[in-house]
Design a protein that fits this description.
Strand 2 and strand 3 form a beta hairpin. The strands form 2 sheets. A 4-stranded antiparallel beta sheet has the order 1-8-7-4. Strands 2-3-6-5 form a 4-stranded antiparallel beta sheet. The chain is mostly beta strands and 150 residues long. It contains 3 helices and 8 strands, in the order H-E-E-E-E-H-E-E-H-E-E. The protein is elongated and about 45 Å long.
Length: 150
């Protein structure tokens, strides 16, 4: 996946949407051995100039700390089904540690009015790949969903 696809995908959703949590952490209070993605949300805002912005946020936990979280938004109707291997080439969220094992990761992208107007309407999905400092990974193919309307 190219960075441009990620930006276009994320921007496309920016028109009008509501985020939904799809991937939820387990109730186990122990620190996970592999990265665990929870509290994933997506917020899309139409800008006054016709452009839009997308913000995806998730809590990511691992016993060795979090190295990064990669994010890709895509229209469900596209038939795209990104794999964990493909996610290694997309843009990263910014992660900030909130404890020794948990980070809050945020990815924000803005799009122009022209780009926002050309994005497909309908349900979109956000995929996420979390990588821990010990190189363990967790792939959430449907970390969040939202709907784009023009």
């Amino acid at each position: 996946m190219s960075k441009r696809l990620v930006v276009s995908s994320l921007a496309a959703v920016a028109a009008v949407a509501a985020g939904t949590v799809v991937f939820v952490s387990s109730a186990d209070a122990a620190v996970p051995d592999k990265p665990e993605i929870s509290k994933a949300t997506a917020h899309y805002t139409a800008e006054a100039d016709g452009g839009a912005s997308l913000t995806f946020t998730a809590s990511v936990a691992d016993n060795s700390k979090i190295k990064n979280l990669r994010v890709l938004a895509w229209p469900a109707s596209s038939g795209l089904a990104p794999t964990a291997a493909e996610m290694r080439d997309v843009e990263e969220a910014t992660c900030k540690a909130t404890s020794t094992t948990v980070s809050t990761c945020t990815y924000t992208v803005k799009t122009s009015a022209k780009e926002a107007a050309t994005l497909p309407e309908g349900v979109w999905r956000v995929s996420a790949l979390a990588t821990a400092k010990d190189h363990d990974t967790t792939f959430a193919p449907h970390a969040a969903t939202f709907t784009v309307k023009h």
